[in-house]
Design brief:
Elements lengths: L1 E7 L2 E7 L4 E4 L11 H10 L7 H4 L6 E6 L8 H14 L7 E6 L8 H8 L8 E4 L8 E6 L5 E5 H5 L2 E7 L2 E2 L3 E2 L13 H8 L24 H13 L3 E7 L5 E7 L3 H14 E4 L3 E7 L9 H13 L1 E10 L9 H8 L4 H10 L3 H15 L1 E5 L4 H4 L5 E3 L2 H12 L5 E4 L6 E4 L2
Helix pairs in contact: 1-3, 9-12, 10-12, 11-12
Protein name: Nickel-dependent lactate racemase
Organism: Halanaerobium salsuginis
GO molecular function, one term: lactate racemase activity
Length: 429
Amino acid sequence: MKKFSMKYGKDKLHFTIPEENLLGVLTSDAPQNEQTEAEIIKTALANPIGSRRLAEIVKPGEQICIVISDITRSWQRMGDYLPYLVEELQQAGVKAEDIMFLSATGSHRKQTQAEHNTLLGEKLAGKFKVIDHVAKDEASLVYLGETSYGTPVKINKLAAEADHIILTGAIVFHLLAGWGGGKKSVLPGIAGYESIMANHAMSLGAEPGSGSNPEIRSGKIKGNPIYADMLEAARMAEPSFLLNVIMGSEGEFAAAVAGDFYQAHEKGCQIVDQLDSVPIAEQADLVVATAGGYPKDINFYQTIKTVINAEAALKKNGVMIILSYCNEGFGNEAIQKIIQDYDTVLEREEELRRDYTIAKYVGYYVSEVAQKYNFILVSSLDPASVAMANIRVVDSIEKAFALAKELKGDNLSTYLMPHGANTFPRYKK
């Protein structure tokens, strides 16, 4: 037997498994970088990809719109990289009053002044305008055209009227777009609600009852209509520049890319793939994964990242044991309702097609996963709260292993994923 421990909430859970059953411990590569975080950002800005330096693009007197993520993405630590972007603009003669920060809220709520200050950080807070995008405010939008997928593209008028749009954010694996960052700052970031819903609805198959679209998944660009649609919309907006960061497993800046919004983002995706994806030769009977403890497992909404990654390493009808404390419950009422108010996956799909939201999709997706696999959740959640979705909740790792044995027997080939939210297994048949 071999001993292991995994983070769970603010603690660790300890367990043993037969060594002969262990296929591997899947972890991301630690970035090999001798630069400081400041040097990482400055180097990216000084060496733009597919573009001139930002200081050579902008001119004094021009209006600059910097698109930033909202408070749900505060883990990006934008307050630590935005000052370097502003510094380059001011070196080019752009005045503070000509710089506006537009928060890419997508379909999320408006934010408080305190949250705006958190986004900009100590160096910039109070010195610049921060405006929240409101997707349902038609008066604040301008129509740019229609994509080849039929999505009507409306974006924030302030961005469209600016001389330059600069996109910022972080590149991570994304369950719908394949990759976060880049084009997502435009759609859904600063797009109209109708545009967002038309784009995201492609996460489902064309026919009712067909379930989720198999072309829509993390790390997939080719053949992914959501990604391609977002890219078309972003090109309509004509961003002048991009700065995206890549985060390490401990929340540090592992890398950064800058320049042309498409070319720089593509390079950033390659870096994330090198750092966070792990090739596997086979899928397992059992995957044990943790998001990485608090705050990554603060609620069930955040757990979806770990579920998606664990699924990629698991055989059909295998067992996934997900460690997620969920001390703040579901984290979103829509997830809870779509799980609890419907009896079947098909009924949840019908509701999602009727009124699509990302939160509902997360609730739908986990129930679809629980239909394909044996889903065991070690959590503080009430077992009855997710029983309708066929998710089994236990309060200890020992009970989880006992249940796995009951479901699938002994001698289960096993992967462990100690950083499940940040590690993406790539399996090629």
